[in-house]
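Help! Submission page says 'invalid entity' but I think these are all valid:
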Amino acid sequence: MDNAKIAAAFDQLADLLEFQGANAFRIRAYRNSSRVIRDYPESIASLVHTDPGALTDINGVGKAVAEKCVALVQTGQLPQIQEILQQVPATVLDMLRVPGLGPKKAALLYRELGIENLEQLEQACQQQQVRALKGLGAKTEQQILQGIAIADAANQRIYWYEADQIATELRSHFSSCTGIDQFEFAGSYRRGRETVGDLDILVVSSDPEQVMDHLASFPAVEETIARGDTKMSIRLTTSFQVDLRVVAQESFGAAFQYFTGSQAHNVHLRGLARQRGLKINEYGIFRVEEEDEIYIAGETEEDLYAALDLPVFAPELREARREFEWAEHNTLPELITTTDVIGDLHMHTTASDGKHSIEEMVAAARQRGLQYIAITDHSQRVTMANGLDPGRLLEQWKQVDQFNETLDDDFLVLKGIECDILEKGGMDLPDEVLAQADWVLAAIHYGQKQPREQITDRLLEAIANPHVCSVAHPTGRLINRREPYAVDMDAVFQAAADHGKMLELNANPVRLDLDDIQCAAAHSHGIPIVINTDAHHIDGLGVMPYGILQARRAGLAREDVANTRSWPELRALVGVVSG
DNA sequence: GCCGTTTTCGGCCCGACTGTTTTCAGTCG
């Protein structure tokens, strides 16, 4: 059982307890445990087997949660959840996905009307039974009906790059709005999360009404969810939500910090403030004295963090993972930036399933400021993609050699291959062919549904192959589309570290594979990360910034990423076991 | 349920907006 599954169980337990009206702090403790476990870089299940006593060393995991982890790993179930499900059907939790419906109203509907699922809820609203309940009225009934219709779409998180497109359109839309002194996007978009649930716009303006009117006139607006004096929420035709907040100049930094989050980061920050007799809200940081609250700072994030003797954390790090610990020990990493990457070691050409020739890929890569690329077409097993057999591959490499001679000294094309890891195990090309490559990626394309042990063995065998330099898209996941393979990543990290191999962070915004937590875990094993575009088109080279954003979220510095180095320096790292 | 350089008990981040209410609970971020 992986950490995500364990975390999901605690989330479900928290949802059920909230529905039952349990103590709010107990619920929060479970949610906190869930987050900590989901973000934990090592396998909790392994810990349960090897050293269960160490579970409570994890901040946010106490005796009760540790015991539940053991039960979960050993039996696959949580007795407490089973117990509650005797009394409450699991489908009631679907009601919580309806915008505007929370645990209190859902529990009321279940208790008073016996509503157990969304179908019954819709019926009850249509038959006007809901408005009869105390505290609920006709408007709520209408809202629920609308909410049911968009429940799935409204809860869908979109890819970061899609949010980026919307953000660009909104920024452009607001360029014609006068009276705006500052305009920024905050939230998970600013933190660079791989998916984004909504967009948060923060504006400094003396005329909030005008700014809100301007947002309402954005062409893609479907409806206004809420609009007050300083805050407005809209839903786009795609059901995607955009929140706007208008603040005063002296509060801009505090609001920017607050709306950037994450919630867990903010909770921790505010706890630190309380310990010092300070209070943080979106208007500033205040000293609490008797009756008064005295404004200390808030115009910039720098001022706000400085008031707590903290550095301004890069937004990508604000997840209450390790940033506060790093700050305390003065070991905050200087995060990698987009200009640090100078090579790209995974791309395809017309020889397999790419759309452009080697020459075209090179020209596009040079235009993007790269100094070297590896051509890594598919190997023969990947028939759908016209994969290369040894003959075609050796022919391509001859072309690469010839082409390199026509280039200036400031650019290099590497003879590479994305060699399939066969379903039965082993590499798709003979060792004597792989030995002639400059750069060998190993990747799984078939047998993705194999049992955990089998897939893990395939990967470990590939990593041990002396010609393999790196594993491409190591987990095979496609965000929102396909689960990762069942694979023992702890074993993969151990093997990569033992053999001195690199792991890829595939920058395709739908892959981002490894993810941020896995990247951080790989890094803690001393494994160099190589960020590649896996481009199948010259435009595909443009996805590199998404990968870099993910690397930043993993806390990686320039030196942690292999393709920030010159090719000779990078190549010298392969096979070197640090110790 | 978790946590502790004030604390092993008593705290736990904070505010905007809405709908249904006559002062506030629920939801959301």
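Support: the input was valid. A stray whitespace character was the problem, and the output above is from the cleaned input. The radius of gyration of chain A is 26 Å.
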